[in-house]
Structure formats: structure tokens, C-alpha cells
Amino acid sequence: AQKITQTQPGMFVQEKEAVTLDCTYDTSDQSYGLFWYKQPSSGEMIFLIYQGSYDEQNATEGRYSLNFQKARKSANLVISASQLGDSAMYFCAMSPRSKAGTALIFGKGTTLSVSS
Amino acid sequence: GAGVSQSPRYKVAKRGQDVALRCDPISGHVSLFWYQQALGQGPEFLTYFQNEAQLDKSGLPSDRFFAERPEGSVSTLKIQRTQQEDSAVYLCASSLEPGEYGELFFGEGSRLTVL
């Protein structure tokens, strides 16, 4: 069965510091995609970053980078230079790329709180 | 706006009432997903449409849940005889691509509270 595990219910960081949000996944598929979404209090899920299972380089999008360790089945999100506006819930998700229309499987999320 | 629009944003229903939640996806998006997000949890898949065809409804928790997308654009999620355990945020997402990897765009959700 496919599963996403996020073990950190909450993380606290000060402005301008870097923070790592953990994500491990379980799948028997060879081809899959890994995603991170941000959900502020407004409720909308905002796409942050994507990593394909065959991508050799770690994905980066501005201040976000994905530390992909395939052998360990981990896909941690690193946010550099945290900002107050980064305070939100963060969800790791997975989709088997091989199957059309397959929905994302989400973890339970990590609440990030950034203080000044 | 150009994003996914959901209505109502908030709905309070008495137990046993029927509710209908609407999703307006981004124009031209082929794929449409419904998710249920309980308080403090991640979203869980309910159902998937490719255009007007409902290709996967394996996540619908009971036969009280019904979804449709008759013209391949707007979708409605209907819950009959609501129960307290149906209280959750219902998220709609759409993507341009019919499958494989297509970036999902989410609406802000409809928060349902069943009393």
C-alpha cells in the first residue's frame, strides 16, 4: 500500500533561519512523483515543489528545495531563510506517475510556525 | 478569478439534511478531483473525473456521497442524509493534464459542519 509519513506535527523556527520538514514514503511503484503543498489558514492548497522518482537532481524552487533520498524513501522539504508568511501547514504527497488520473496521497501534515 | 472556485465556503447542516457543494475548475482543465479533509488531517481522495467521466469513485465513504460533472466543467458533490462524521473541509482540485503528472490547482474548500 502507498503511504506518506510526516512525523513532525509542529515545527518552530525564527525568521531567516532554514528549516527541514520530514517526509518518508512507501510505495512499490518504480515510477512516482513527490509533491509538497502549503496550506495557509485560508484553506487553499498551494503547490510548492515536485520531484520525479527518476529525476537525478534534487528539485529546487526559489527558497524551497527537496532533499530526495530514493534509497531511504525520503523527500524532505528544506525552506531557506524562513519568512513570517511561511507559517502554515505543509503536506507531503505522492502520486504514481504510471497511472493516469491517480489522485495524490497526502501525509498528515506539519504545522510550521515562524517567529520574528 | 482564474482559480478553482468552490461554493459555499461554509455550510452548516442539521443531521439528516442533504447538502450540495459546487466546484468551478479552471477553464479547460480536464481532470477534477474531490478530497475530504478532516480537522488536523491531510486531504483524502474521494473521486476523480476526466472531463464528464467519473473514472474513480473508490474514495467515496458511503452511498450517501454522490458526485457529478455532467458537462465536463462544473462539478457538484452531493451528500445525502448528512451525519456528524461528514463534518470536514471538502476540497476540489483541477489539472490541465488528463493523467500522469499534472499540477493540481486547489480551491479554498467548502467547510461542512453537521450538527
What is the general shape of chain A?
globular
Strand content of chain A: over 45%
* Net shape of chain B: globular
Give the N-to-C terminal Cα separation of chain B: 32 Å
Helix/strand structural class of chain B: mainly beta
Largest sheet of chain A: 6 strands, mixed
Q: Which bin fits the share of residues in helices of chain B? A: under 10%
Oligomer: heterodimer
Low-confidence stretches of chain B: none
Strand composition percent of chain B: over 45%
Largest sheet of chain B: 7 strands, mixed
How many helical stretches of chain A? 0
Q: Radius of gyration of chain A, Cα only, in angstroms? A: 14 Å
The radius of gyration over CA of chain B amounts to: 13 Å
What is the residue-averaged pLDDT of chain A?
A: 91
User: What's the count of strands of chain A?
Assistant: 12
Helix content of chain A: under 10%
Number of helices of chain B: 0
Number of strands of chain B: 11
In a few lines, what is going on in this structure?
With 116 residues, chain A is mainly β.
What features would you highlight for this structure?
heterodimer, A: 116 residues, mainly beta, 6-stranded mixed sheet, 4-stranded antiparallel sheet, 0% helix, 50% strand, B: 115 residues, 7-stranded mixed sheet, 11 strands
